[in-house]
Fold this protein.
Amino acid sequence: MNSIEEFVEKVRETINSNRFTKLTLSKPRYKSNGLQNIFIRAIDLKGDQKLSFNYRHLTKDLTKNFEIKDGLEELESHLTEKFKHATLLTGQATWQLMINKKGKVTIIESEASTSTKSTTHNKEKQKRAPLDAPYLFELGITTSNGELIPKMADKYRQINKYLEIMDHQIEANIKKKKLKLVDMGSGKGYLTFALYDFLQREKGLDVTITGIELRQELVDFCNQKAEKCGFEQLQFINQRIEEFEEENIDILIALHACDTATDDALAKAITAKSALIVCAPCCHKQVRQQVKGKTQENPLLKYGIFQERHFEMVTDTIRALLLEQHGYQSKVFEFVSNEHTRKNIMLIGARSKQTNEQAAKEKIDALKKEYHIDFQYLEQLI
């Protein structure tokens, strides 16, 4: 057994003992084909363990999943013919394989770094958005070597929290394996890309996602990045939310859709009877403008800043109750910490047969009467 075969055998052992964290191939022997790195991870796909290879080229990234046996053969082939350096990370140790100009192979073992141990200890949380995922590089969150860019740390934390929330909500509320999602107000697509990659790669679902965005430059940017990542069922279109027509929506997402666009998105979801609605409400102007000049009995509303925040809560409470009135179980909770953004509320609606429509309507009427509100915009839309 030669040194490369010994290294591949070490990889096999770490996989079998569930110690495998990550394997990186670097220093290509030939630069003419544009292949710079290969990042390899062990993933669980529909109950089967596989090796996921992310091939990073100068102009594109490709991802391919292998059975363990086939993946190890692919690894050995690349080490024999295409790469001169490999780094195997586990929670306990790091193995490096180096091939010099004369073809001599050296394998060095060292203790795992503290960060690697921490990542391995927290693997369940981290693996939802692995740092070597191609979309993170394409969107400017990581370097070409899969390292987090410091100024993007908050965004990366938000991505992982979002995937954690979506993972739990989909597990609890949706049993289908083929899903159609619409992300209304998708922006630069950070969370849209992350969700597509997670549901396809980690959960093994047949997912189609459409991002709706008004800014044409962002639509073009996201479509180009989706093509580079090989995300064939992820597309972005330039359209106003209220003009989007689609009856078959399993999950509707609206994160920080501005002004009454949040209500437009919720109305589309209710009309389509989406199984799950995920909303981060934004811009609560409509109710605030409606109550201007009206005397409010509550002393909390004497001060402008308190009034603004109070009517944000009133608006989102009415939205949650309107979901309940139209066949959903609703919940409202904090999305990310206040230190990152003040607009940190997540509103979830899960379609249910157990809602009390009359009780929800009575609560809405009571709120409107107490605060002298004529209507909340979502009421008119539905």
